[in-house]
Amino acid sequence: MNYIVNTSTQKAFSLFVLVVIVCIQSFAQKSLRGIVKDANNAPLINASVKLMPTNIFTSTDVNGYFKIDDLDRGIYEIIITHLGSKSYHEMIQMEDLDLTLSIILTEDFINLENIILTGTSFSRRQMESGIAITTLKSDKLQQQFYNGTADLLQSIPSLTTDPSAGEVFTKVSSRGISASAQDDLGWYYASLQEDGLPISLIQHSYYAPDIFHRFDLMTEKLEVLHGGNASISATNAPGGIFNFISRGVNDSLRGEFQLNGALQGDQNALFKMDGVIGGPLGNNWFFNLGGHYRKDEGARNTDFNFSNGGQIKFNAIKENKHGLLKLYGKVLDDYTNRYTGVAATNWKNPHAAFGQDFNTTALLMPGFKGEIPDGRHLTNNKTNGFDPSKGVHAQDYAIGIDFHQNFNNDWSMRYNGKFSHKIADWQTSISNALVSLNDPLAYFISGADFPIGQLVFRDTKSGSEIARINNSGILAGESFEYLDEGRLPNDAIMGTSAWYKKNTANEWIDELRINKKWKNHDFNFGTALGISNSTLFTQGSFAYVTYEPNPRMLRVTLENPNEDVIALSDSNGLSNYGGLFFINGEAKVRQHAIFLNDRYKIKKNLTLDLGVRYENIIHKGSKDRFEPFQSDGGLDNDTNTAYDNGILAPTGIHDDFNYNYDYLSYSFGLNYLLFNDFAIFTSYSLGNKAPELDYYFNNFSNVPINRKGVIQKITQFELGLKWNTKYFSSTITSFISQLNNIGIINFEFDPDDASIFYTPIQFNSSRSMGLEWESAYAPLSNLTFRFNGTIQNAKALNWTVYNASGTVDTSDDEIANFSNNTIPFIPKLATNISAEYKINRMSSFMRWQHIGKREANISNAFQLPNYSLFHLGLKYTMNHHISADLLVSNLFNSSGLNNFFGSNTFGGNADDITPDFVKSNPNASFIVVPILPRRATLKLSYKF
After folding, report:
1. Amino acid 771: pLDDT
2. Structure confidence at residue 445 (pLDDT)
3. 53: preceding bond cis by omega (within 30 degrees)
4. Which pLDDT score is estimated for 123?
5. Angle at Cα 754 formed by Cα 751 and Cα 757, nearest 5°?
6. Rg (CA), the chain
């Protein structure tokens, strides 16, 4: 029997079937909702929510909520992660009804669950990485009001930091890798980075990356790589990586603004505004904009604002199905200064001398507006403005692109590149030693031919006479005498140089990484390129300044009876224009690296990391030879003005350099995950450090640059464990670091011709062995104890120092041997212990920081004493938007010493002091750099 169905009936039936299918499908698909909170019942914003095996991804909103719609029945694994919290995993089953979850994430005390990006060829969970790395998220970084980058890093184990100079001119080293990190090259072995690329490609005297880095709310987290993996992860930086990572994608408009007011030292004020805002722009575009401005009178007493300025940082991010594109940039325009030393006596227990104070004395020249002839352009009468209140004017204009993309067959790529234009304009003073009025240097350094007789010292601001003396007997060994009732403080002047230095650099830095996953291997290979075109000009003049806690500029004249008045200084107190230092040079630096890494999963819980990196570095440039400008009466042809008689100027001869450095670094490591919360790791690396530009600029004074620098070799080994449980987390790492071919030089002052010269370079070696740890214990949900620290022993294997005996004459020179001595400035014990307590809307912390004794120089002549500091924080959260913090660093205003500059003489250096000198001169004064005094900060925050 045949059935005939007409067209109308077919269409009706098809429509019915379609409606039924849609209805069934709609009834089958359900929604998953949830709220994510922390242990204190506060919502977690921007927590990542991932549903496997669908790869569906979302994040929580400002109230901690998330929602995933249109899910089929079945079993899923939900994975929730949040920076600073332990990851959450749960198997769920979607039935006929919608599912709602309430999830509590416990704190990841030391961020072992964090996905790290630094020092690894591909992102991975920190617990699964075979390297020692510390991660600090934004809220931990905000627990203190930090005085610069080095200050922020003080609580991280294995690091030796010296932030006593302020925000810049700081010193940071890891695991005893510090020997060439001189006072003006304090980041010599390290790579200071923003978003995965170095801030600067080059370093030389008074030009280090910390000049161009400021921390503010735009930073989301900090990753610090301690160990040898830096040798294959960063160009020419085997001693560690410090990567400040900016904020990323926000699904909704969010922001935070802060007002900070502080009192520090002798009730000096600081004011800072800080803010960040970010969110969607539409069509899968997102943005972040942040920055700060601050005005700071300084931790110590000066007659000018110590810091003034700020920065703006931004990024725009475009997400697609398989990756993202990020455009980013920075504008830094900031004035800051740096503190020099303070005089002390008593080698066994140093205390401040000459009326100075470790907490409040800056001993910097006061601010004034002067003009110094530019030695390069004397025929054009060009001058350089000089105002010590400006310190260093740091400018950094940077723009970059960061591109991630995943491809088929487990291929992926990342390209990150940026261009920057940098300017560092120094107008400050170096050295602040006592120069007795009985010392001929006090007069002959002016550039005058024979400044003997009656001298008059006047205050440059008021014009009033301070003192009148007769120095006629000093050349015969007799004492000067005062001719009236006026007196100079401490019967001395300050031996200081008006230091003008201008550096510029145009830099391109990029890195390309290509990743391929294949079976049990995760291959990563790529290339890094750096190009820097830089200029350098340095000019040093003498300045007449009183030697007292609040120095005054002095106008000095020679007023012998019946003779013309001879001006030893100009009206601002400046003398010997451009006669102490002269360096004029330029350099082109090309750095290129090729690297290959493989992460081989030997077994489920055992991985092997192998890496090799080839680097080629080219230094090409020149520096001018110089000599004193020759003219009767000096530059102004006036025989009555002595201060312009010795200006150093180019001779027209250039000393060129063009050297190529290449080397191979490698590293291998094992990570064994015994359990999901317990891992053992070990690594070995051989790294290299090529010379920085200071090698050419600070050596070869007026002689050909006839040899290339020596590449330092750095061997590092580490063995450690990571343990992460519900109430306790810890990493413990033992390490050995050895450095070879360490080049050491010093500059000295020759009083015979009033010139500065550098001593011949010495090549040395050292080894450091130690144990570092980082741990946290939370016996209660609102109480956490943290304990981290380092025990290490850093020794000189072979170490010599060239002693020029204070003259350019080599006949009295000698080479001192200090092999087997302890490396200076590295404490054998450094610890931090803190307690954090939260209850309702209140939270607080107290941290105790202890720095053990340190040798003050390589001869181990004396030790810098140990010291302890307490830091306090109180926070009250009014609601989800408004909070107030009281932060106090160095709560009890403790004193401590972080650096040593040698004897209290102009041109002295730390290595001049030997045990015999200390024994023979028990009452001598010397120059130390104290830690910064107490600072109390009130911070008001608004979040939305």
Report:
1. 97
2. 95
3. yes
4. 63
5. 90
6. 32
Q: How far apart are CA 921 and CA 916, in angstroms?
A: 8
Nearest CA to 824 among 898, 884, 716, 770? 898
CB contact at 8 A, 849 and 786: no
Q: What share of the chain is helix, strand, coil (3-state, %, to 5)?
A: 10, 55, 35
Segments of the chain scoring below 70 in pLDDT: 1-29, 55, 96-97, 112-117, 119-127, 130, 181-183, 746-758, 805-808, 810
Q: Which two tokens stand for residue 753?
A: 């011709």
DSSP output for 359-406 = TTB---PPP--EEEE-GGGGGGT-EEEE-GGGEEEEEEEEEEEEEEEE
pLDDT of residue 4: 42
5: number of Cβ within 10 Å: 9
| Beta strands at 268-282 and 285-296: parallel, antiparallel or unpaired | antiparallel
Structure tokens at 374: 């530019």
Q: What is the DSSP string of 144-159?
A: S--SSHHHHGGGSTTE
Residue type, position 843, single letter:
S
CATH of 29-105, one of 2.60.40.10, 3.40.50.1820, 2.40.50.140, 1.10.3720.10: 2.60.40.10
d(CA 232, CA 752): 49
Domain ranges (residues) in the chain? 29-105, 282-943
- Say what the pLDDT of residue 25 is: 43
Q: What is the pTM of this model?
A: 0.88
The H-or-E segment that residue 503 falls in is: strand 492-518
**Residue 405 identity:** Q
- Nearest-10 Cα torsion for 563, 564, 570, 576: -70
Q: Residue with structure tokens 């107008």?
A: 427
Q: Please report, for residues 551, 690, 765, the alpha-carbon distance to residue 695 in angstroms, rounded to integers and kept in the order given.
A: 34, 10, 18
Q: Where are the alpha helices (DSSP H) in 691-787?
A: 694-697
Residue 177 to residue 402: CA distance in whole angstroms: 31
Give strand pairing partners of 89.
79
Cα 400 to Cα 421: distance, rounded to the nearest angstrom? 12
pLDDT value, residue 2: 42
Class of domain 282-943: mainly beta
What's the rounded Cα separation, in Å, for the pair 647 and 609? 58
